[in-house]
Design brief:
CATH topology of the largest domain: Quinone Oxidoreductase, Chain A, domain 1
CATH architecture of the largest domain: Alpha-Beta Complex
Distance between the termini: 25 Å
Number of strands: 18
CATH superfamily of the largest domain: Medium-chain alcohol dehydrogenases, catalytic domain
Structural class: alpha/beta
Radius of gyration: 20 Å
Order of helices and strands: EEEHEEEHEEEEHEHEHEHEHEHEHEHE
Strand content: 25-35%
Length: 363
């Protein structure tokens, strides 16, 4: 067993503790990745705060990039020394969802309590989200990683693993946006900015960002929003419709887990439009809407997990767009932190002003 440093959650709502843990070698079908960077996602914060329950102690973190250090038996197409993006999408490849082209909904369960990590004294340690990347290294299934070139920095690459594919994918895959259609993006945080980028790349006519902060609306324009609406104003959907020339949107992408955002989302829609539900509220939180309006206007609401991506298909073209200067990644990084600063980085993320904070190793 290898000894590495990791940020461990021992109790919900308490600071993470950076300590030694055990990491076993990869077995058949797995790879070991030495991490260079892991970004802090709001999902990690919600889990660590107890918002969705779960097993403790645990290592969170799921938005990472690094270099392959070892291969388990039967792994092909990858080699020691390859630069990779590490995702939480542990697709089996054979269940009905995987075979049907939706690996983000893989039906094969994973028991993180019996994964590759243990506490320093050999006790149970939960590998959260099948990744556990708030650590110096991870062992994951080989289908969770995508090989990239060395030309892209690992801190920028780490963002692709979740925030980028979730936001861009929600527009391109879930909403199936066509050129000339209009989009409203509720929330201009990390995922929201990527949804805005996705809409720009897909050829949206107008892109309206909705947020509670004027500063974040200004940033949204830098990423491609054509208009910004303060969510705190009375009936913000009316301002959005005015920005869209007096009509509703073809797609409304909800990227925050706030219940008021979900309550209001259908009000931004035009006839035949769809709400794409991306942001994840705490368990048991409830939203309300008028189903008669959805039925009468031919509208819909659909959930989108991880942008409905197929990582081996979608991550390479997103990285290529970055290479061309058409997808912003470096601009998404608000701050770079060491592992021993992770609680400070989490606190900064909770303020809502950060786009993405990144833990950088060996810096």
């Amino acid at each position: 067993m290898k000894i590495i440093k990791a940020a461990v959650c021992h109790a919900f709502g308490e600071p993470l503790r950076v300590e030694d843990i055990q990491l076993r070698a990869p077995i058949a079908g797995e790879v070991e990745v030495t991490l260079d960077a892991v970004a802090i996602c709001h999902s990690d914060i919600t889990y660590a705060g107890g918002g969705w329950g779960g097993s403790l102690p645990a290592v969170y973190g799921h938005e990472a990039a690094g270099t392959i250090a070892a291969l388990g038996d039967g792994v092909t197409g990858l080699a020691v020394g390859d630069s990779v993006i590490v995702t939480l999408i542990r697709a089996c490849g054979t269940c009905g969802s995987c075979a049907g082209g939706t690996p983000t909904l893989c039906e094969t369960p994973y028991d993180g309590d019996h994964g590759p990590i243990k506490t320093a004294d050999g006790g149970k340690l939960h590998q959260a989200m099948a990744t556990g990347a708030f650590a110096e290294a991870v062992v994951v299934k080989h289908t969770q990683v995508v090989k990239i070139g060395d030309h892209i920095s690992k801190d920028a690459a780490s963002l692709v693993a979740c925030g980028v594919i979730t936001g861009v994918g929600a527009v391109v895959n879930a909403a199936a946006l066509r050129p000339g259609q209009d989009v409203v993006v509720i929330g201009a945080g990390g995922v929201g900015l990527n949804a805005i980028q996705g809409a720009r790349i897909a050829g949206a006519r107008r892109i309206v960002a909705v947020d509670m902060s004027e500063e974040k609306l200004a940033i949204a324009r830098e990423f491609g929003a054509t208009h910004g609406v303060l969510g705190s104003r009375e009936k913000p959907w009316e301002a959005a419709q005015e920005a869209l020339g007096g009509r509703g949107a073809h797609a409304v992408i909800v990227t925050v887990g706030a219940i008021p955002a979900y309550d209001q989302a259908p009000k931004y829609l035009g006839k035949g439009g769809k709400v794409i539900m991306v942001g994840m509220p705490h368990s048991d939180a409830m939203s309300t809407y008028e189903p008669v309006m959805l039925a009468a206007l031919g509208q819909g609401m659909v959930g989108s997990k991880m942008g409905d991506v197929v990582i081996q298909r979608d991550i390479p073209w997103m990285v290529d767009l970055y290479d061309q200067g058409r997808l912003k990644l470096d601009e998404l990084i608000s701050g770079r932190w060491r592992l021993d600063q992770i609680n400070e980085a989490i606190a900064d993320t909770k303020t809502g002003s950060a786009r993405r904070n990144v833990i950088v190793f060996n810096s």
